[in-house]
Each structure stands twice: as structure tokens, then as C-alpha cells.
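Workshop exercise sheet. Pairs work together: one partner reads the sequence aloud, the other fills in the structure field after running the prediction. Swap roles for the next sheet.
Pair: D.N. / O.F.
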Amino acid sequence: MKIYTLGICLFLLSTFATAQTHLYEHPQIDQYIAKHNKVAILPFKTSITLRPKDMKSMSNEQLKKMEEDEGLSIQNAMHSWFLKREKKWKIKSKFP
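Structure field:
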């Protein structure tokens, strides 16, 4: 039983250790950044699909509002992500 528990713990540990977020960066990103002074982070176009049971209780306007809110949420997350790297890329925020 101890070996079984130890095996599960090692498996979970190795799974969590390899589940890191890998961000793609263009190999020449420093050259692109040097040429640009502004970066626009536009709201994402999102599409939400609900189960038929959930769709019955929601109007089309509510679904559209939910999709717009999700797009703005992703935009805000990207803005925060860039601000955390402000020193690396010398970004100055003009977004409230």
C-alpha cells in the first residue's frame, strides 16, 4: 500500500512539475520592440457555447454581453501581463 501511495505521489508531482505555462516569444522580439513605441491590446472576439439547458434560461442579448465581457477580461489580463514585464521591455502604460 505504501508503494502504491508513493507511486501516485511521484506521478502527481511529476505531472505538476511539467505543467508550466510556456509562452511563445518571437526569436527577434527585441528587434521588433526597438522599432515600436506603442502596442495596442484590443479586446478579444470570444464565442461562448452553452448547454441547451443553460441556453433556455438566457437571452441572446445576455449571451452577447457575456461574450463581450469575456473579451474585455482577456484584454485586461493581457494588459496586466505586459505591465508585469514593464522593466524588461520598457513599456509605459497609458491605460487606466
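Discussion prompt: The first helix runs from residue 2 to 18. What would you look at next?
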